[in-house]
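Obj: model holo form, ligand = KDO.
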Amino acid sequence: MTTSLTRRGLFATAAAVAMTAGFASTAMAQDCIQLRLSAVQSETDQRSVAMAEVFGPGVADFACFEPHYNGTLFAQGTELEAIARGNLEMSITSAQELAEYIPEFSIFTAGYVHQNAAHQVAVFNDDVFDSFAAAARETLGVELLAVMYLGRRHVNLRQTREELEVMTPADLEGVNLRMPGSEAWQFLGRALGAAPTPMAFTEVYTALQTGAVDGQDNPLPTVVDARFYEVTNQIALTSHLVDLNYVAISAEVFDSMSEDQQERVRQAAVDAAEFGRQRQLAMEEELAGFLREQGLEVYEPNLAAFRETVQAAYLESDFSDTWPEGVLERINELGE
Ligand code: KDO
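Output (holo structure tokens):
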């Protein structure tokens, strides 16, 4: 991702593109608002299924929803800039990607902060999120429509449990753990005790297969959908991040719609997120069994040790200096 652009500069560029050229999508097809979505997951991932089965049909009478998966339209981490520049209308983005431009989003990337799927929704719908949503608009020209549930991330390794049993962060010392390519992700890898390597999602299967990395972290539905289980031997159920995504749309495109269309787009995204969330939760419940059948050892490490070490790492880091006063406390209040 290009991070050399300043936050102000990026917004100015987005505004200039919108003012001078207008959006090709709306200019080209007046009776159909083109909504191209770029994301790196496959089309069988439940978030993609939700967008195809719920979002697309929900806006079909005025918008042409055109999803592109597997990073084929834009590479992982470049989607927000593409939206800001007027080259893309939608993406399924992450707090980690937003934190590259808006540091305070790192609070949603910190391990053991969100407790579960319902907690993510409560935070997204609470007033506490207003300043974050406003910052995404102001800095990137992005409207965040809904929060999607990705799931509980766990540590998934090539080593067998006999070769390397992961009970505490100390056991991950020197483990070459692939993490996605932004600083927020790399920090999480270090906080877990591992030696993180940045790598795009689309390269992970081959890296695991060839041994270029020892492992990766993702929720169980992703381990299955991306077939990482074929090239790994164990999963330590660390649950270190209850991970989310946001359904994001260009604010310029969104603002060009009628109020009724805007409401329909937002509702369709919320409905798709709910549909995907229920599917992901159900899959998380049943996939440990499937993975064991595939020969993987799936076990719970010392969760208290992981939680304590990871939380301390964040509170001592520069990340927590960017968290607005009172936000962590409010997030905690909204949990169980
Ligand atoms: C990944 O690259 O490991 C990750 O899980 C990061 C998430 O933010 C999200 O982008 C996800 O990939 C993709 O949607 C693929 O599932």
